Each structure stands twice: as C-alpha cells, then as structure tokens.
Amino acid sequence: MTVKLYIASSNRSSRNARAWFQRHHIPFTERNIIAQPLQSNEIKRLLRMTENGTEDLISTRAKIFSKLKLDLETISTSELITLIVQHPDLLKRPIMFDEKRLQIGYNEEDIRRFLRVSVNRC
C-alpha cells in the first residue's frame, strides 16, 4: 500500500517526512499542495479521517489564517473547505495517509505507524 504525502516544498517538516519514507523504503506518492491545491472532495476525505475534524487540519498559526480572521467555531464546514481550496496554506503540513492511517505534521515517533505497511508486505 502506497502512502500519500501532501507537502509544501519550503516546509522543513515536509522534507523530513519525505526523507523518513525514503530512508525506510516505504513507497509513497508526493504532492505539493501549494502548487497543486486539493479539491473539495479530497479535503472532505481528509476530514473524515481526522479525530478532531478541522482542528487537526487547519494551521491556526498560518499567516493566511490571521489575515482571513477565521473563527473555526462559527464558520461552516463547506465555507472552510472552499477557503482551503483557495488558500492551501491553511493546511498543516505534511499530511501523510494511506487507507487506514492519517498523520498530520512530522513527528519522529508517530510516523513509525507507517512501518507496519512495509513489514506486513515482507
């Protein structure tokens, strides 16, 4: 099973995640979500995989979040999805997932959950 890796090339955590997958020989496909923004159906899929919904996906520290003066408590999900399509910088990065697992942000311990994918294939 191939892991999907959504990145921004200028993001250090994205580069770390890519290097980790390469180092552990775990197959992945990579997509720069700034150059190739996600479509609404892709964002909805990610939202369904999260434990805490938009809270897990949205970077409240992003400059665009402040600029847009977003309030996650009052904005509708459809409005937020539209904004993410228009402003992919709203998303935390990297986003890594397969059919069963989702990880947002690079964490040396948490990313190890993807090792099972390659171990099970051996």
Describe the protein in words.
This protein has 122 residues and is of the alpha+beta class. The chain has one domain: Glutaredoxin, CATH 3.40.30.10. 40% of the residues lie in helices and 13% in strands. The protein has 6 helices and 4 strands. It has a 4-stranded mixed β-sheet with strand order 2-1-3-4, covered by helices on one side. A hairpin with a 4-residue loop joins β3 and β4. The chain is globular. The chain starts with a strand and ends with a helix.
- CATH class, please? Alpha Beta
The number of distinct helices, counting runs of at least 4 residues, comes to 6
Question: What percentage of amino acids are in beta strands?
Answer: 5-15%
Q: Low-confidence segments, ≥5 residues, pLDDT <50? A: 117-122
Mean pLDDT: 92
Read across the widest sheet, the strand sequence of neighbours is 2-1-3-4
- Principal-axis shape equals globular
Can you tell me the CATH topology?
Glutaredoxin
Rg computed from alpha carbons, rounded to a whole number of angstroms: 15 Å
How would you name the oligomeric state of the polypeptide chains in this document?
Answer: single chain
Key features of this structure:
disordered C terminus, 4 strands, alpha+beta, Glutaredoxin, 122 residues, single chain
In short:
The chain has 6 helices and 4 strands.
List the helices and strands and how they pair.
Blueprint: E1 3-7, H1 12-23, E2 28-32, H2 40-49, H3 54-57, H4 63-68, H5 77-86, E3 95-97, E4 102-104, H6 115-121
Parallel strand pairs: 1-2
Antiparallel strand pairs: 1-3, 3-4
